[in-house]
Amino acid sequence: MSSPFVFLADAPLGTRVVVRTRIPGGYTDALGFLRSRSAASVSVETKRGLVTLAMADVVAAKLVPPAPEQRPRRARA
Length: 77
Hints:
CATH architecture: Roll
CATH topology: SH3 type barrels
Strand content: over 45%
């Protein structure tokens, strides 16, 4: 298994990813599309908007399959 840094450096922009980062008191995940990267940071477009994460805080990252399609609502009888 490669390091999260190697994965993020090699993943094509637009890839759906989850990136786990260290925050005060624990960890948090950013799930979305990889939009940009540099040696210092990575940007992920989530449902809530674009987030920029410091590479120094990254502890894990991996590819995520596409989100399932939403099922249509069932009509009430």
